Amino acid sequence: MMSMAIPVKQASFDLNMAIEYLTQNNGLVKVGSEVDIYQELAGVAKCFEGRQTVLFERVKGQDYPVFTGLYWNRELLAGLFGCDGRRLPFLLRDAVQAWQQSPIHPVVVDRGPANKVVEPVVDLTGLPVPVHALQDGGAYFTCSVVIAKDPDTGVRNASVNRIMVTGKNRLAMLMDVGRHLRHYYERAEKAGKPLEITISNGVDPTVYMAAVVPAASAPIDKDELGIASHLLGRPLELLRSQIVAVEGVANAQFVIEGEILPGVREPEGPFAEVTGYYAERAPRWVVNVKAVTRRKKPVFHTLMPGKEVFNSVGIMGEANIFDMVSRQVPGVQGVHLTTGGCGFYHAVVQIAKQREGMQRNAILATFAAFPSLKQVTVVDEDVNIYDPDEVEWAMATRFRADKDILVIPDAFGHELNPCTRDGLTAKAGFDATTPYPRPDGFTRVSVKPVNIKDYHIE
């Protein structure tokens, strides 16, 4: 039975199988009432944020259901990989390391679930793409995987970008500075050529996770889709496209084929970004859509702003930070990218101090390992880094503002954070550890451990 096995290791694992697993394990609610993709769907989904995933079975004026919430509950997501939430970042890390050492390359097939139907006419308005937040500038693809090929080497890149529908065959998208897709495009644009892409919606979580691996772990000359192969335990299947020379994901729900046009910019935004604020409307890159294929009975997948974005970012970043910091600082026990820090801006590092000053080294190493960070808080091994109350307790009882704060002015920041000015921001590290060796006054109150199963309780 699938609920007893590891879902991602099952033959032909896909989003539909993930939904089935979540249904069997009380991880999904089904909304039978008709909902509107214009803001109402997001409003209903928000009521379940951080808990169960949501399947909207009846979407007003649309032919296909919509699924969301896959990435906002770490324990539910981890169940698909056969582990718990704390182990999940390291399971993903192990797959990245295995791929780096001995890659399992994807295979290309001519036919698959995602091209069972080839739409005779391109019309993106026929897809149930939601408008999420109240001030969003339009309908957005938020968790679709963009695949492109290096115009010089042909190496694939996979990424997740925000993409706004602007017409029946037209999209506007953001490409962040420093991302591999941006490098590909700028070289193509310089040569006066479009950059062909596919946009795969409704991929399984192994593909999504491969697409959000930090660039430090997936260099530009490597095809990170092989990471999904390692997570699956078999080569990922990619689908030969109808028109463009770039593949889509064979087990996706929809595949959109197109090209990012050279020298063309059109308005995109506002959009509810990872910061919890709206990204401004501005001229951005334009996709001309050439073909759309789909499953016979597809489910559109969308990612909600808020905890789902924060969590999906944090999962991939934590193990990477842990490894990089551990190489430089002994005694690191764990790393957590907090939800309150948007999964991008605040890391809590747990350390077993072996001498005074190591906590400051850990702060500096953590900033270097994840440049988007604005804050790093270091705590002792007796503090639960996943519990914000515990972290606040450590700050309230172990942190001294006159001695235990490290400020780094004019550091490189994340461009989407509104605190960043001309690419620069200030960063702060907080030492919430006890002195070393620990004085008696910092002995935590504790009680006798018991096994509650040994007691008769009504």
TrEMBL record:
Gene Ontology molecular function, alphabetical: carboxy-lyase activity
Residue intervals of the 3-octaprenyl-4-hydroxybenzoate carboxy-lyase-like N-terminal domain: 19-87
Gene3D superfamilies on file: UbiD C-terminal domain-like
Entry's Gene Ontology cellular component terms: cytoplasm
Superkingdom of the organism of origin: Bacteria
Span of domain 3-octaprenyl-4-hydroxybenzoate carboxy-lyase-like Rift-related: 111-307
Record-linked InterPro entries: UbiD, UbiD-like_C, UbiD-like_N, UbiD_Rift_dom
Domain spans labelled 3-octaprenyl-4-hydroxybenzoate carboxy-lyase-like C-terminal: 314-432
Family according to the record: Belongs to the UbiD family.
Name of the featured protein: 2,5-furandicarboxylate decarboxylase 1
Organism: Desulfotruncus arcticus DSM 17038
